């Protein structure tokens, strides 16, 4: 999404979205990016909360993360993401990609600058959620590996045998780095240029920021796909339905497996 939005401006050097028929499409794309990012961040947060509560408050975990309660949580996540997007889109300062700096920034009217600015709160929460997720994953790693080493449940034993607790920790750290990095870049976009001296004719610094931002947007779903077995299984099922094997291929595959498993 970042590439689609920013590539025309990067190539032409002109902010040609404003005052054109493409402006509505552009604003919709920016809003879509915010909804998807906020929803994915909240889903990771509640996933971590689910993992922590399994060990600390198992009964409460069953009530919160099953049945109708789980549906309410999921609906609330999407309502929150959509609601915050509407607030930022219709009441906050105008977020746009600037040709002169090759980066996203906010343009505020004098009235907006003198009042509460939602994007400042958004930058704050983009840093707070990853910190909470990281703390939760470190807690899970320590608790599963050390606290429940003796008399562990079957689930804990399976995690230790497969090294799953280390995978869990690595996944949590990487997601926090990439998710928190987005909030850090928001700070860089808005405040750092005023604190340091940057040649306005140089595009190296803002171009690196733009590439990093696109990398952050791509990294999070890839991390989920690489580290989460349920997501991998779901992706394989989708691919299997989309590209089913022909009957002859299935028969050949079954025959090969049978020969492989045949006792010597």
UniProtKB/TrEMBL annotation:
Residues passing through the membrane, by range: 40-60, 127-146, 167-192, 204-227
Superkingdom in the source lineage: Eukaryota
Keywords: Membrane, Transmembrane, Transmembrane helix
UniProt entry tagged with the keyword Transport: no
InterPro entries: DUF621
Protein name: G protein-coupled receptor
């Amino acid at each position: 999404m970042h590439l689609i939005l920013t590539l025309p401006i990067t190539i032409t050097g002109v902010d040609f979205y404003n005052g054109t028929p493409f402006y509505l499409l552009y604003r919709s794309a920016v809003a879509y990016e915010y909804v998807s990012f906020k929803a994915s961040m909240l889903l990771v947060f509640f996933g971590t909360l689910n993992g922590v509560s399994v060990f600390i408050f198992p009964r409460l975990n069953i009530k919160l993360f099953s049945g109708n309660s789980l549906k309410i949580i999921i609906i609330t996540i999407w309502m929150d993401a959509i609601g915050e997007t509407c607030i930022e889109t219709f009441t906050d300062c105008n977020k746009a990609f600037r040709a002169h700096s090759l980066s996203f920034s906010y343009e505020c009217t004098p009235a907006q600058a003198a009042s509460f600015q939602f994007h400042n709160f958004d930058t704050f929460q983009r840093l707070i959620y990853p910190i909470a997720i990281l703390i939760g994953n470190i807690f899970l790693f320590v608790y599963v590996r050390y606290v429940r080493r003796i008399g562990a449940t079957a689930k804990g034993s399976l995690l230790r045998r497969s090294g799953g607790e280390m995978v869990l920790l690595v996944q949590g750290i990487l997601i926090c780095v990439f998710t928190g990095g987005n909030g850090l870049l928001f700070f860089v976009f808005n405040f750092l240029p005023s604190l340091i001296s940057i040649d306005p004719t140089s595009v190296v610094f803002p171009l690196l920021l733009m590439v990093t931002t696109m990398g952050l947007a791509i990294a999070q779903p890839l991390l989920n796909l690489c580290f989460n077995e349920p997501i991998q299984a779901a992706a394989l099922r989708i691919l299997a339905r989309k590209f089913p094997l022909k009957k002859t291929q299935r028969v050949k595959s079954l025959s090969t497996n049978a020969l492989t498993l045949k006792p010597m």
